[in-house]
Specification:
By secondary structure, the protein is an alpha+beta fold. It has eight helices and 16 strands.
Length: 385
Amino acid sequence: MADFETPTWLLYSDIETIHNKMLAELQTLLPDLDLSEGSFLWDIYRPIARAFSRFIQFNLTEYVKNTFPQYAYASMLDAHAEDRLIFRKNPIYAFGVIKITGNPGAVVEKGTIVMTTALNVVDSIKFETLERVTIPDSGEITVEIRAMEPGASGNVGRNTITALQEGRDDIKTITNEMECSGGADRESDEDLYERIRIYDQRIFSSWVGSENDYKLWALEVPGVGSARVEGCLDRTGDGGDGIVHVAITDSEGRVANERLKQAVYDHLNSPDNLENKLTAVNAKLVVESPETKTIDISATIYLEENFDYGVSIDTLEREFKEKVDEYIKSTFESGVIYRREIGAILINLYGVADYENLKLNNERSNIKFTVDEIPVLGEVTLRGS
């Protein structure tokens, strides 16, 4: 969001300035008064000046800021959004599946709490089972789970949910063989303002179901991080199949699960209430999550001369991975990863003087990907020289 620059007419409103102006006005009217520091009138006007200063520097400044959505925050930004029928996305729960092994006939009730293992300062993440199951003769069964608290914290990796909150002798092991996904935090001010900004840019455009319209509608669904749209794609070779393809990622830039894809489809098509249908009449809609496309990166780097502050190639590689991963997640909507952007991240690493032979998937070129693909960072190899 934009940085707020205080208007000039709100400047010079500190306590001293206001107090001195008040005393000067009073001295003009009554020149014989004692207005020296510590005098009765000096003391009387001081708290008044303090109150005026606070009102101008804080209250009035905050009022001016919140008049404009690019500077507004919290509930005031919500008000700007709601004026446009845009609503902040609430946090949503992560879902997953666990495999339970144990004695045949053992019953696991709906609402049984399972959890990850606490590590150092990281608390356990708790989940609850969504149905009552009985372990069959095979000794194992799977059951769907949902995080106890909404938010991205429930998006845990595979084989991390390994414990029951209350231990049982008839249950041997618990694990999630696949990662849990779909959890999203409450929409941030930055993301909400971005949707307001896009709406305002298109306020004079006709909402006729263009590709940008579908993108905006998809982004309204809690849990959706980004969206790409291709309308009426010719995937059959006969001039077009008339289907609008909406590809989405979750709030963490990963492959969306079936629950999130269904939520987007229902929001756009509104099968239970056609009056709320957003898609055009007779339009066919497919909501999909792309297949992953791995991006491997390699380069030779040169450290700054006499650079000996304990920074190893492994340390630089970890920092590079974090920044590149963030960049790659941001490219889904544009459909292209620029080699120059990767190079800019590399050259700005602390201690790196230069680099050469930067390759993306063993090529010295940009990488483009289709609406059916989502880029994910693969192997990163930095060689020192």
